[in-house]
Design goal:
This protein has about 325 residues and is of the alpha/beta class. The protein is built from 13 helices and 9 strands.
Length: about 325
């Protein structure tokens, strides 16, 4: 049997990153340079954060309009996604496929009609709450552990109808467990790591992982050092997290949601103005920024090579890199 060439596998595989938070983090040229770096290292699809829970409807529409204008004006390099087939077409033409997501549900401003509008503008998944309580449910840093509100239940039902994926990252434990009960479609954790590896409020427990898998969902491994349990955000630490989830619920339920930040100085400045969203002693603002590391785009080929060395099958590796996300999108998007 011929050995699998990691370079050829990485080039041929669909590489899908479910979370790049480009919004308001650094100069435009720096954030778009990060996307170029992703593409140069084999990434074929990215989902970009275009709104967070502190964004209302007006700001969110403006953010989406700005990003759409940029990608449409640079259609030689990017392809705005409407369908799953668009992702595969973009790969064939060596373009980076792009869609959007929200980190929180406040951008709907209590109007469920906005779900379909946002979907038509390219928003393909939405996490329920960003760290703290909102009208839909609790965030992962809340003092209590309330579940979904009536609005939250109706919101997930509307997301199911429209084809938008419900996302449990940054969301409180009970709220996520009730998401699995309500949703008829797979529910995901776009960027959350196992709490068994790194005890952090942003990470998720085994029963959350198991419930996500039972729904048909995928857990995206985030490459942020604080959540990996590794100060260097090494490739091996990402693989340790992949292995834990794969061993627990199967390789078909693991993907990438790297959460890469190109401009850490801009992030630090942003966090200085948003301490209400993170608790004392448990988040970025209480860490020296030089100690917060991120899995870099240039590590993507190494990830594929190292997974091969760990004796994962080619089909499992293709799943980790992107085909598991593709399966969920094929099932949910409309």
């Amino acid at each position: 049997m011929n050995a699998i060439n990691p370079i050829d596998l990485h080039r041929d595989a669909l590489v899908w990153d479910m979370v790049i938070p480009t919004l308001d983090l650094g100069a435009e040229e720096q954030k778009y340079a990060a996307l170029s770096r992703m593409a140069a290292n084999g990434c074929n699809f990215v989902s970009l954060t275009v709104a967070v829970d502190w964004d209302g409807l007006d700001d969110t529409i403006g953010n989406i309009a700005r990003e759409r204008a940029y990608f449409l004006a640079n259609s030689d390099k990017y392809h705005l996604v409407e369908t799953v087939e668009d992702i595969l077409t973009a790969k064939q033409h060596n373009k980076l496929a792009v869609s959007f997501h929200f980190q929180g549900t406040n951008p709907i401003e209590y109007d469920l009609n906005m779900v379909e509008t946002y979907y038509k503008l390219g928003v393909r998944h939405m996490l329920m709450a960003y760290n703290t309580k909102n009208a839909v449910g609790d965030g992962c840093y809340e003092l209590g552990d309330g579940g979904l509100s009536r609005l939250g239940v109706r919101l997930i039902e509307e997301m199911n109808r429209v084809g938008m994926i419900a996302d449990g990252s940054h969301t409180g434990y009970r709220t996520t467990m009730e998401m699995f009960e309500v949703s008829k479609d797979p529910v995901i954790f776009s960027h959350s790591n196992p709490r068994a590896i790194c005890e952090h409020s942003r990470n998720i427990r085994d029963d959350q992982i198991q419930a996500c898998a039972a729904s048909g969902g995928v857990i995206g491994i985030t490459g942020v050092s604080l959540f990996l349990g590794d100060h260097q955000a090494s490739t091996n630490s990402v693989i340790d997290n992949i292995k834990y989830i794969s061993d627990l619920v199967g390789p078909q339920h693991v993907g990438l949601g790297l959460d890469y930040i190109a401009d850490q100085q801009a992030l630090a400045q942003k966090i200085d103005s948003m301490t209400a969203w993170t608790p004392p002693g448990d988040a970025f603002e209480f860490q020296p920024q030089e100690t917060v590391k991120y899995f870099q785009p240039e590590q993507l080929p190494e990830l594929t090579e190292t997974l091969l060395k760990c004796n994962y099958s080619e089909s499992d590796i293709r799943g980790f890199l992107g085909e598991n996300w593709l399966r969920v999108a094929n099932q949910v998007w409309k």
